[in-house]
């Protein structure tokens, strides 16, 4: 045996004697699961019987609960999904609504289901989303039916199996949520000694039941019980593996849904003398964007402003909000944080809760609008039914504590803090609204960049294997 070979064996033996333990290793940092439930309003949660909320009660008693989550305007899914993963108001992340229209390109965005929805037009210059920021810090990212998480961003692509790509045209897509939990728990348990984990999950069945059947229906009651069972089962499986010592669970919604008042459903074309002056109306029900040629804007604005359908009647109470408010784009209230968004129309209609606007004859996006839907979003965030939910538990959160309202844009900074990441851009969240929810030491959270580097074990083994091959060749 050559001297070199002998020294190599001594070195290899020394390496194996280094205390890199084979028994269970401690988690490298904290993990995070975010479960987003479409359409679950705080008002619905508050009026649901406690016996139907075993999972929610366990979450609240072992963690924190906000009075409600204030969504961004419009209270549609896409703007709020974007606010969740960027911490920005709509006019700052600029994903304007569920449906958008580009006059310049003469194409529309249709909630991710349209033929042109993959065009760069909609996605260029968007702010950095949470999963990109986490992935760049070498955190393991996993997405389940979460909006555009499977799309490449910059120099990173999250590998999401096609069956877990979001598809809003399939109302049953998220039915199998509970079947994903064993895989999630197993992966956290296996990988957390080497990498932090971020799971982004979405559930849509409750919103579908509310929109289709309305509050108080058997279908909605069953849907509430079903999602609560999922929340209970996920906590149970995490608990059984002792993972709540390392893993945080946030359950929240994008916004609530408000009951439609069938007696206050208006058809937009009945306000107009000449339909041809409207190029297109985009979105429906609680918020409608009206596109016209510049030379027709004044005419259309005036006709909508004085429309008999929603004009004040003799018994009108001027302290109440009008059924329909008609705005020029420049006059949209600043409090909505929306006016500077992309693809804005020159005229916007916003209704009071319960009132809806649809069309049967005008060019519209979406092309087909349900006039029988039982509940919708889109109204102003301060509306009671539009308020969402926020509950969380895990090592980052206090136990059995309730707090006042927080904003959708506040959640982003909490997620980053748990993962030990500095925000990559300025955001609209207010730290003082969420700081008191967190356990002591949040300001000393280890930087994820240092946590998720190659582990000593893998580095040693790679070096040993390379040296072994080299020596074998030189024998």
From TrEMBL:
It comes from the Eukaryota. The keyword Signal applies. The keyword Signal applies. Pfam families: Phosphodiest (PF01663). Residues 1-22 form the signal peptide. SUPFAM superfamilies: Alkaline phosphatase-like. This is Uncharacterized protein.
């Amino acid at each position: 045996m050559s001297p070199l070979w002998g020294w190599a064996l001594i070195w290899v033996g020394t390496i194996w004697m280094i205390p890199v333990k084979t028994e269970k290793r401690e988690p490298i940092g904290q993990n995070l699961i975010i479960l987003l439930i479409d359409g679950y309003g705080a008002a619905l949660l508050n009026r649901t019987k406690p016996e139907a909320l075993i999972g929610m009660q366990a979450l609240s008693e072992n963690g924190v609960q906000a009075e409600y989550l204030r969504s961004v305007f419009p209270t549609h899914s896409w703007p709020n999904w974007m606010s969740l993963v960027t911490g920005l108001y709509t006019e700052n992340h600029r994903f304007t609504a569920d449906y958008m229209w580009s006059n310049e390109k003469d194409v529309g965005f249709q909630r991710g289901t349209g033929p042109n929805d993959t065009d760069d037009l909609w996605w260029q210059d968007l702010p950095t989303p949470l999963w990109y920021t986490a992935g760049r810090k070498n955190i393991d990212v996993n997405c389940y039916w979460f909006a555009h998480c499977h799309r490449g961003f910059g120099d990173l692509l999250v590998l999401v199996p096609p069956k877990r790509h979001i598809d809003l045209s399939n109302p049953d897509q998220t039915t199998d949520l509970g079947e994903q939990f064993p895989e999630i728990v197993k992966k956290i348990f296996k990988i957390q000694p080497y990498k932090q984990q971020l799971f982004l999950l979405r559930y849509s069945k409750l919103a579908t039941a509310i929109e289709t059947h309305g509050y108080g229906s058997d279908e909605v009651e069953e849907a509430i019980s079903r999602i609560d069972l999922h929340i209970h089962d996920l906590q149970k499986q995490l608990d059984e593996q002792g993972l709540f010592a390392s893993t945080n669970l946030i359950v929240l919604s994008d916004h609530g849904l408000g009951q439609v008042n069938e007696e206050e459903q208006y058809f937009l074309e009945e306000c107009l003398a000449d339909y041809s002056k409207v190029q297109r109306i985009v979105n429906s029900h609680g918020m409608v964007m009206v596109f016209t040629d510049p030379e027709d804007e004044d005419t259309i604005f005036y006709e909508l402003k004085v429309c008999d359908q929603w004009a004040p009647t003799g018994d009108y109470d001027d302290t109440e909000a009008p059924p329909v408010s008609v705005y020029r784009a420049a006059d949209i209230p600043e409090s909505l944080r929306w006016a500077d968004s992309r693809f804005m129309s020159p005229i916007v209609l916003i209704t009071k809760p319960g009132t809806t606007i649809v069309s049967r004859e005008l060019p519209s996006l979406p092309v087909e609008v349900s006039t029988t839907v039982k509940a919708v979003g889109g109204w102003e965030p301060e509306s009671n039914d539009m308020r969402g939910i926020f509950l969380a538990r895990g090592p980052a959160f206090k136990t059995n504590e309730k707090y006042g309202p927080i904003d959708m844009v506040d959640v982003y900074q909490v997620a980053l803090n748990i993962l030990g990441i500095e925000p990559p851009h300025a955001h609209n969240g207010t730290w003082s609204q969420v700081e008191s929810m967190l356990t002591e030491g949040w300001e000393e959270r280890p930087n994820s960049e240092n946590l998720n580097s190659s582990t000593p074990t893998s580095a040693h083994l790679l070096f040993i294997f390379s040296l072994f091959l080299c020596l074998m060749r030189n024998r």
